Amino acid sequence: SPSIQTKNRPRSEALYxxxxxxxxxxxxxxxxxxxxxxxxxxxxxxxxQGAYFWDEDGNRYIDYLAAYGPxxxxxxxxxxxxxxxxxxxxxxxxxxxTELEIEFARMIKSAIPSLDKVRFVxxxxxxxxxxxxxxRAYTGRNKIIKFAGCYHGHSDLVLVAAGSGPSTxxxxxxxxxxxxxxxxxxxxxxxxxxxxxxxxxxxxxDVAAVMVEPIVGNFGMVMPKPGFxxxxxxxxxxxxxxxxxxxxxTAFRFHYGAAQTFDGLQAPSLAAIEPDLTALGKIIGGGLxxxxxxxxxDIMEQVAPLGPAYQAGTMAGNPASISAGIACLQxxxxxxxxxxxxxxxxxxxxxxxxxxxxxxIALTINRIRGALSTHFCDHPVTDYDEAQxxxxxxxxxxxxxxxxxxxxxxxxxxxxxxxxxxxxEADIAETIEAAGRAFSxxxxx
Length: 445
Ligand code: PMP
Hints:
InterPro entries: 4pyrrol_synth_GluAld_NH2Trfase, Aminotrans_3, PyrdxlP-dep_Trfase, PyrdxlP-dep_Trfase_major, PyrdxlP-dep_Trfase_small
CATH superfamily of the largest domain: Type I PLP-dependent aspartate aminotransferase-like (Major domain)
Main location: cytoplasm
Family: Belongs to the class-III pyridoxal-phosphate-dependent aminotransferase family. HemL subfamily.
CATH architecture of the largest domain: 3-Layer(aba) Sandwich
Bound molecules: 4'-deoxy-4'-aminopyridoxal-5'-phosphate
Pathway: Porphyrin-containing compound metabolism; protoporphyrin-IX biosynthesis; 5-aminolevulinate from L-glutamyl-tRNA(Glu): step 2/2
Largest sheet: 7 strands, mixed
Radius of gyration: 21 Å
Number of domains: 2
């Protein structure tokens, strides 16, 4: 029967033991643990270059994790690296405004016109957290509506039915969040306008905002059904609620812009409607810490020093992150970048689907341009229930078998595979062959 050789990773094993002594759970973000894929030591990486990284034992991996999204140019992209070095030479933090921030704000605004005004912060979590505060300040209301399985970072309000990290770990919401806060959040199923209408009927006049990932990246890649976002915006507005798009994953993922500016994915176009506020992060930092939020002028003017909603940051808009972000967006603005990501991912999708068929493995692949998700099931995945109702043990086996062959995926059945500009056709071919061997082992079991 087919078999795949297990790699030895004595350094990762030893480092994990050591890390457990000092760092809670041995990891600085729970999604990095292997808890959802059978446990044990995660792989400790030492170096990344382009589409690859190497672990502490010298094993090479093709990287589809892309650091959960930001590394769309691959590791150590020369222009980004040069920008970071230049920034470091000039001092990485001033605590004063800089011209770079204006340049970057202009770049982002011209790609995403719903942003009359922006503010840079340090993470997606902060960006989302602040959009909620601003929406509450603007409307004078307290509640928010979110969608089951959408993850919006780890601030109190959005860590309810929050998706990938928490649901992978089997924690529906976090300890330490008072019921009084959780009770301000209403969760409804994604792609379900009736449920949204019902929630707004009941609580509408208390709802400050409806928060949504316009294209979901946190229970696999899931498109809004045609008309869903239009219906969502119309419903929210008819109740006087704001619409917040969390574009932390989606901005600059599928094209040079955000989901809200993309008219190439479906009809009616996603670009037919605009949110009131938008949260950004990941790709816009070029691999350094960043977040940003922005939106309509009159709403953003609620923020201090102009208005009564307070938000601040010692590290916010630091020259290193901003320089990396500018270099990253400049590289992404080159012609053909996104079409190539799309083509590589299409090839990968086709190869994975064919290999799964050949070995009788039930596999649903959701692909949106250069991002895809693999679900071990024989039904479509269009909402969180369907994403949960997939075979986690199959995924765990697949994850391990791919890892042993030098293909690194995220250790969760809910996370996407991200294509980078550094991946080559040879990498895709190698990945498809590895998947074929993995499926063959899985079907023989
Ligand atoms: N929103 C979305 C849609 C995300 O996917 C994430 C992170 N995976 C966040 C917000 C939080 O971003 P960060 O981890 O930078 O705080």
